[in-house]
Amino acid sequence: MKLCSWNVNGIRAVLRKDALNPFIDTVQPDVLCFQETKAQPGEADIKLTAYSEHWNSAQKKGYSGTAILSKPEPVSVINGLLPEVIEIFGPRDDGYGDPNSEGRVITAEYPEFHLVTVYTPNAKDDLTRIPLRHEYWDPAFLLHCKTLEKSKPVVFCGDLNVAHTELDLANPGPNRGKKGFTDEERAGFQAFLDAGFVDTFRMFKQGNGFYTWWSMMTGARARNAGWRIDYFLVSESLKSRVVAADVHMDVMGSDHCPVSLVLDI
User: Fold this and answer.
1) pLDDT tens-digit profile, the chain (265 residues)
2) What pairing do the DSSP bridges indicate for beta strands 2-7 and 259-263?
3) What is the DSSP track for the chain?
4) What pTM did the predictor assign?
5) Is beta strand 52-56 parallel, antiparallel or unpaired with respect to 66-70?
6) Active site residue: 119, 136, 211, 231, which one?
7) 18 among known catalytic residues
8) I need a surface site. Which of 6, 77, 112, 129 has the fewest CB within 10 A?
9) Which value, to the nearest 10 degrees, does the dihedral of the CA atoms of residues 196, 152, 106, 12 take?
């Protein structure tokens, strides 16, 4: 089973650039997970009849949002964090980072696992949203995944807005302590690993040079001065079923590139 995840930075923009269909024709994914769709259901003329569409769009139009397109029909689909997680952490009241009103999480259940796609809030240039990440978002999302894991294994993917180690960005020195590479955000990612989830890409490739996001303002992509902030992680119990994991740095259309996972399911 082949799964792909892509922060499209506007699904309609990717369609206008004719970037989506060639990628699908080449990779042939069974399931596609999108982040930052910036669209409501029906606003993007995707025309992929082999896939059922499941959207969690932000209440604010043209902002945030996630979607899952799936050839196998999911057993069930849940938008947002689980109610029991919201009950513990509470809803957001500061106008940013609400996993439900901003369409940041979708969970699709399949017979052998849960698939979660996530668009994690960034910390902002002035780091004013570090408390949001450190005290609310990262622990709440981890609890969401661990709660799902009680019933069956979990695969989660998406834009986590953090480079985990110095190998996950081209220029770690000058970016240390900046958004996406603060101690708090990196600790949030490490908590997923400590809880038993596996960074699938690192099962196959080590070292630097493998990135999924490049700044559009500095010509960074041409120089491959990027960051690996898009991931597929799986429950430890699924590790033996991971056949391949990759980043598709040659695929254009967004400031992110797609990432993929193949499971023996």
Assistant:
1) 999 999 999 999 999 999 999 999 999 999 999 999 999 998 988 989 999 999 999 999 999 999 999 999 999 999 999 999 999 998 776 667 777 889 999 999 999 999 999 999 999 999 999 999 999 999 999 999 999 999 999 999 999 999 999 999 999 999 999 999 999 999 999 999 999 999 999 999 999 999 999 999 889 999 999 999 999 999 999 999 999 999 999 999 999 999 999 999 9
2) antiparallel
3) -EEEEEE-SSHHHHHHTT-HHHHHHHH--SEEEEE-----TTSS----TTSEEEEE--SSTTS--EEEEESSPPSEEEESS-HHHHHHH----SSS--TTTTT-EEEEE-SS-EEEEEEPPP--TT-TTHHIIIIIIHHHHHHHHHHHHTTS-EEEEEE-----SGGGBS-HHHHTTSTTS-HHHHHHHHHHHHTTEEEGGGGT--SS---SB--TTTTHHHHT--B--EEEEEEGGGGGGEEEEEE-TT--SSSB--EEEEE--
4) 0.97
5) antiparallel
6) 119
7) no
8) 112
9) 90
Which residue's structure tokens are 């499971």? 263
247 with 212: CB under 8 angstroms? yes
Q: Which of 108, 230, 90 is nearest to 159 (CA)?
A: 230
Q: Is 2 left (phi over 0), alpha (psi -120 to 50) or beta?
A: beta
Place of tokens 């990612």: 189
CATH superfamily of 2-263: Endonuclease/exonuclease/phosphatase (3.60.10.10)
Name the active-site residue from 30, 138, 159, 199: 159
Quick one: tokens of 106? 């979708």
